[in-house]
């Protein structure tokens, strides 16, 4: 991909400025000019993040930025912080749909079903969604509501089932095989879907005991505390199945603090951070479900631009296929791509 002229930009996880409102970030390629209502002078794009403090969301925004720089147009991006709050993000989407301030929206939904209430937007502008769909069915990737033109994602349940199937393989000779489920947020629709898929696969196996499901909130520190508490009652845990690398990082810390070699436990996460990929290469983690958030953000911006300019739009972009490698990674698969380091840092 063409290197963004603002490629060094990223929002640090410890950013002191919380983007509660609109923060304009970029002036893109071209000679400038004021954007608005799809004018030939450029485009104003709102980028609605589920949380601007979350590394995954920051990586998506980076991809949006890079594609905006690559396109032959003036594109100004404005980031909005959803603060992991469904009501906040719904309000932001409704506001973006009023008047002619924005020409389009890229969104990482916190709650896809709840966000559907904003549609159709009053100004009819196109929207692309990243990571999960907008609408009542989180397994349906084709647009479900009027105004969404493309979804860059994979069905969360299918991805979670594949993670769980790999756990079943690992547990084949263990009876009981004690499994802890470490999900992002216990009440978030996407994480609820993941937990349901984990349980559907694992509960079919007589030798697997699901010890508990705990919340990591996509945060290493919170996850470390949570797993430390679990280990006090179940020190002989065999598997910690997490949907996020930040959480698996916290689980690893908790194991080490408890005097347990993390390589003796099946640790897996989701996201494909540079650290997680190295951990799998080193045998500290057994597997990782690699995401490509920078490439996903770029794909969403590209499809939005296609919609704005009347070009062909891919209504569904399979997020597992936008990266360079097989997303379900083990040490063996990573050995086949020794130079791959991942797209982002958690």
UniProtKB/TrEMBL annotation:
<protein>
    <submittedName>
        <fullName>Sugar ABC transporter substrate-binding protein</fullName>
    </submittedName>
</protein>
<dbReference type="InterPro" id="IPR025997">
    <property type="entry name" value="SBP_2_dom"/>
</dbReference>
<dbReference type="GO" id="GO:0030246">
    <property type="term" value="F:carbohydrate binding"/>
</dbReference>
<dbReference type="Pfam" id="PF13407">
    <property type="entry name" value="Peripla_BP_4"/>
</dbReference>
<dbReference type="GO" id="GO:0030313">
    <property type="term" value="C:cell envelope"/>
</dbReference>
<feature type="signal peptide">
    <location>
        <begin position="1"/>
        <end position="29"/>
    </location>
</feature>
<feature type="domain" description="Periplasmic binding protein">
    <location>
        <begin position="45"/>
        <end position="311"/>
    </location>
</feature>
<dbReference type="InterPro" id="IPR028082">
    <property type="entry name" value="Peripla_BP_I"/>
</dbReference>
<comment type="similarity">
    <text>Belongs to the bacterial solute-binding protein 2 family.</text>
</comment>
<keyword id="KW-0732">Signal</keyword>
């Amino acid at each position: 991909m063409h290197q963004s002229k603002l490629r060094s930009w990223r929002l640090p996880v410890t950013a002191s400025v919380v983007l509660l409102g609109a923060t304009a970030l970029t002036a893109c390629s071209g000679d400038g000019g004021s954007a608005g209502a799809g004018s030939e002078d450029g485009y104003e794009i709102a980028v609605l993040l589920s949380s601007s403090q979350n590394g995954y969301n920051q990586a998506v925004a980076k991809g949006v930025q890079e594609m905006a720089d690559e396109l032959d147009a003036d594109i100004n991006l404005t980031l909005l912080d959803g603060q992991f709050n469904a009501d906040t993000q719904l309000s932001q989407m409704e506001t973006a749909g009023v008047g002619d301030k924005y020409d389009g929206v890229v969104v990482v939904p916190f709650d896809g079903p709840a966000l559907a209430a904003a549609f159709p937007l009053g100004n009819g502008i196109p929207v692309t969604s990243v990571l999960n769909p907008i609408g009542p069915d989180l397994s349906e990737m084709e647009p479900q509501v009027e105004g969404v033109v493309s979804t860059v994602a994979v069905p969360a349940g299918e991805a979670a089932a594949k993670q769980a199937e790999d756990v079943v393989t690992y547990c084949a000779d263990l009876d009981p095989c004690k499994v802890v489920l470490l999900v992002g947020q216990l009440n978030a629709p996407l994480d609820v879907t993941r937990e349901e898929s984990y349980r559907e696969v694992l509960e079919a196996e007589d030798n697997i005991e699901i010890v508990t499901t705990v919340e990591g909130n996509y945060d290493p520190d919170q996850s470390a505390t949570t797993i430390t508490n679990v280990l006090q009652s179940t020190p002989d845990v065999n598997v910690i199945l997490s949907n996020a690398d930040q959480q698996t990082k916290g689980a690893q810390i908790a194991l080490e603090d408890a005097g347990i070699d993390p390589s003796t436990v099946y640790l897996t996460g989701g996201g494909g951070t540079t650290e997680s990929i190295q951990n799998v290469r080193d045998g500290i983690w057994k597997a990782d479900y690699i995401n490509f958030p920078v490439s996903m953000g770029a794909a969403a911006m590209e499809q939005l631009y296609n919609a704005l300019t009347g070009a062909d739009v891919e209504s569904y972009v399979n997020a597992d296929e936008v990266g360079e490698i097989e997303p379900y990674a083990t040490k063996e698969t990573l050995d086949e791509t020794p130079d791959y380091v991942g797209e982002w840092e958690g």
